[in-house]
Amino acid sequence: MASEMIEALTLLCQEKHIDELVLLDRLEQSLAKSYADIMHLDFGARVTISRETGKVYVYKLVPKEESFDEETGEYTEFDEVDVTPADTSRIAAQHAKTEINNLVRTAARAQIYEEFSDRLGDMITGTVLQVTPEFAIVKIREGVEAELPYFDQRRNAEERNERPAGERYAHNQRIKAIIIDVRDPNGTSAPVRGDRSRPPIVISRTSIELLARLFEQEVPEIYEGSVEIHAIARDPGVRSKVAVSSLDPRLDPVGACVGPKGSRVRAVVTELRGERVDVILWDEDPGKFVANALSPAKVSRVVVDSETGYATVIVPDDQLSLAIGKEGQNARLAARLTGLHIDIKNETLAADVLRELPIVEFEKEEEGGHRCEYVGENGMQCRNMARPGSRFCGLHEAMAEFADVAVSNDPDSLI
Predict the structure, then answer these.
(1) Chain centroid to CA 191: how far?
(2) For residues 227 and 245, is the Cβ–Cβ distance under 8 A?
(3) 252: exposed, middle or buried (Cβ count in 10 Å: 0-12, 13-18, 19+)
(4) Cβ of 243: how many Cβ atoms within 10 Å?
(5) In angstroms, how far is CA 241 from the centroid of its own chain?
(6) Gap between the Cα atoms of 257 and 280, Å rounded
(7) What number does CATH give the domain 283-364?
(8) What angle do CA 372, 377, 382 make, to 5 degrees?
(9) What contacts 74, CB < 8 A, 6 or more positions away?
(10) Which fold has domain 2-115?
(11) Residue 17, class by beta-carbon neighbours within 10 Å (0-12 exposed, 13-18 middle, 19+ buried)?
(12) How far apart (Å, rounded) are the C-alpha atoms in residues 95 and 121?
């Protein structure tokens, strides 16, 4: 019977790719703890399993008096007395089942950790297998599963919430996500509640990397490197902003990302379940970058203090609510995108502030030319377009030749 157990263990180890010697060592340690409790052995027990016959031997540990350490109060050497009971095979079989299951699970997790620990930030496509109140289990491939957590962090502050607002998942639904963590089976990762029933791979749909990978997938120019993503700001499930630039001056990076009739960005929005995505042009000039980031609002003027990291933005009165956005969302995303603190003022309320600011640091050029450079006494710039080859519009170009001629300060006077 014992030899049959060894043969069965050998076959099982081969099937599950488990080291037979490791299994026997673990089995001996587990049996030693159990027999010490069952037989009420004060100093524990040692168990050996014959590698040839599979017979189990139990030895009682009897301390040697001369090995007593007065500093630690413990014995360091023991004699072994054979106290093997008659029914060792039954108990050994029970422990063998438990240890085999533990080893198989640990080996599988170790294999997954070795394969996926270097793939953090990669995008995967999986199928939803199970949905629980706190996380979804997603099948990546046969035998490999991942966890998409969406815990209530008010009750579980140590857990994650990687589900965008408003998203719900159904059985067999295919989703794309980013690998953000792989739990180490050896315990170097932080322990989590219910670790035994939760997959070792953790994925996210709120990560900004998901948006970047989706654009790489849909826009060949980004994948090839001719269009570069500089920054991403995201309010998961609601709205995102992506700043792009082109290494080829003949290539429009925003147009490449939007695609013919918006087909490319529409594919990204569809995968993100309707999340609005704004693609803007990145600029190395902080003022122009801030103005672009506040799109679709039109900006009159931007003054950036690079030392404090603050940007003062002046917008037309009718553009103030659009620049700020619903609940401040547009301004908040623009601040994340640019890395600057943005203070938005309308032209009427900013008239006094403008007088104290330096000469215009940013002027938003419009297609086909630029605005008239005339600035009135109230600090407001003329809204008319400059004449070709001139700095001023038709009226202010003529007025500039006569310093004693009064010029209207109303920027709308010629509109």
Answers:
(1) 20
(2) yes
(3) middle
(4) 23
(5) 16
(6) 10
(7) 3.30.300.20
(8) 20
(9) 68
(10) N Utilization Substance Protein A; Chain:P; domain 4 (3.30.1480)
(11) exposed
(12) 40
Q: Domain spanning 117-189+197-206 has what CATH number?
A: 2.40.50.140
CA 373 from chain centre, in angstroms, equals: 45
The helix/strand/coil state of 389 is coil
CATH code 3.30.300.20 region(s) in the chain: 283-364
Cα–Cα distance list, 134 to 147, 156, 163 (Å): 10, 10, 10
SS3 46: strand
Identify any residues that bridge with 161 across adjacent strands, giving them in sequence order: 150
Pull the structure tokens for residue 333: 């995303």
Length of the chain: 415
Residue pLDDT tens, the chain, 415 long: 456 667 777 787 777 667 778 778 878 888 888 888 878 888 888 888 887 777 888 888 888 888 877 777 787 888 888 888 777 666 666 766 777 777 777 777 888 888 898 999 999 999 999 999 999 999 998 888 999 999 988 888 888 899 998 899 999 999 999 999 998 877 655 556 656 668 889 999 999 999 999 999 999 999 999 999 999 999 999 999 999 999 988 899 999 999 998 999 999 999 999 999 999 999 999 999 999 999 999 998 898 988 889 998 999 989 999 999 999 999 999 999 999 999 998 888 777 655 555 544 444 444 445 667 776 655 566 666 676 777 777 666 655 554 444 444 454 443 3
Residue with tokens 């998961």: 236
Do you find a cis peptide bond into 85, omega within 30 degrees of 0? no
Q: How far apart are alpha carbons 49 and 53 in whole angstroms?
A: 8
Neighbours of 165 (CB within 10 A): 12
Q: Which residue type does 240 have?
A: S
Omega cis (within 30) before 149 = no
What are phi and psi for residue 147, nearest 5 degrees? -115, 130
Q: Range(s) for CATH 2.40.50.140 in the chain?
A: 117-189+197-206
The predicted structure's pLDDT at residue 397? 66
Q: Determine how many CB atoms are found less than 10 A away from the CB of residue 1.
A: 10
Q: What is the CA radius of gyration of the chain?
A: 35
pTM (predicted TM-score): 0.67
Distance CA 56, CA 86 (A): 10
d(CA 372, CA 361): 15
How far apart, in whole angstroms, are the C-alpha atoms of residue 188 and residue 108? Answer: 17
CATH 3.30.1480.10 placement within the chain:
2-115
Residue type, 100: I
